[in-house]
Amino acid sequence: MERLGVLVVSKCLSSTAMVDALTRSTTYRPELYVVERQPNPYNVTRSRFHAVVPDLNVGDVARIAKKFRRRISFGLTDTEDFVIAGGRDVIERESGVEMVCVAKKYAVERSKAEQRLLFGRIFEEANPRFKVFDPRRESRQDALSGFKRLAAEMKRPVIKPDAPTRGAGVGVWGDDFTTQEEMASFFVRVFSKGRVVVEEKVEGEESSFQAFSDGKHFVPVPLTRDYKRALDGNKGRLTGGMGSYSSSRAYLPFIGSGEWDDLKSAEEAAFRRWKGRGSDPGLRGLVLYDAVMHTGRGFKVLERNSRGGNTEFINTLTTMADDFAEVCLRVVEGSLRGIRFRREASVVTCAVPLSYGTESPPEGGRISLTGAEREGAKAHGKARVLPMDIRLEGEACLMGPSRSVAAVGLSKDLTSARSVSLKVVSALKGPLRWRSDVASEQDIRRSRTHLSLLRSAPDGLSA
Length: 463
Fold this sequence. Notes:
Elements: E1 2-10, H1 15-23, E2 28-36, H2 41-44, E3 49-52, H3 58-67, E4 74-77, H4 80-84, H5 87-95, H6 112-122, E5 130-133, H7 140-154, E6 157-161, E7 171-172, H8 180-191, E8 196-200, E9 205-214, E10 218-220, E11 225-226, E12 229-231, E13 235-238, E14 243-246, H9 257-275, E15 284-295, E16 298-305, H10 312-319, H11 324-333, E17 345-353, E18 366-367, H12 370-377, E19 383-387, E20 390-393, E21 396-399, E22 405-411, H13 414-426, E23 432-433, H14 441-456
Parallel strand pairs: 1-2, 1-4, 2-3
Antiparallel strand pairs: 5-8, 6-7, 6-8, 9-10, 9-15, 11-14, 12-13, 14-17, 15-16, 17-22, 17-23, 18-21, 19-22, 20-21
Helix pairs in contact: 3-5, 7-8, 12-13
């Protein structure tokens, strides 16, 4: 098989899923050059070259890419921090290595306020009602007074810091505050750190829409559902994600095929308006990841990111029928007209430290992957054990404060895929916990019932 050099810039999020997909290539023999913030045991053992750059400084990464530029065909990353910092722009300018991610200009997640303004131009129907409060333009007292008036009109406000927070740091009425005093205190705390976006809470059921582009063609991938709350039953604090699933069809079990077609058409039309005429190479890679809320009256986009969802992209990669290495080459070459997926469900359950999503100080700890890997082997290719925020020290695997391990189950249906995922995650050893209701029949039934009630309500807003 032909050798294929790939640069992987990793924050230890979904990079192991990328590495897994690349090493399963049936056409190429991947040669991996991994630069990551800590030595992930999965990536260390599979890389030809491995370097630890704790802050993923773009200049340091560019120097490594330049050193190996004659051996590297393209580069990938799993973190928006690198994209926001202009990682692609610098790497391509300094080394000539083409990155499969958007240019800095299109890293819209750097500002939630700018996202809303962008959507006002290209995707107005997807915008919830919103207002931006800016400490550079108004005093805290004036902002608080204006916020209180707006909140009274909205009744169900959501408070978001302008800068990326990976879901954490967002305040939602009814979950993170239930009184006017709590809400005002939350607003002031966020406002003291910078711009604040206040949106009207959108009632519905959420999905994650992801799409690739080569700068010209727009290729959606199967819809996924993620679980942002820390505890079963969607209780607890917002986190960066506790797991996700995709079904054996391109759409989710609580969304019909017609609604999926409408969403795809609307997203593509918005992309065309964003791109403009012809081709724009700056919009190349996994071009967008939208958090979509399906409501009683259509859908709204809660936020947009320019990389894959940190658990949702794992669902995408583990069900991709096309060779992922070939897909990336087609993105770089400008010949991406479609991607094939297996009719297979994928369930990701994330094992996390006991303190994850709580106010307790982060704790470390040693974990063992051996039992989970042994359990995964029994699934005969229908399971993955993918370390995330894990670092290798000698022979020990030590946890960081974020998600530790993604346990993936694959099968012809969600029930079976979930069973595999839970068996794998339960075989991990260490001070870990996880949600047991990812892709459960009860949760899917609740989503279906909730949407049905919303659509039968006179205003489509409350069940």
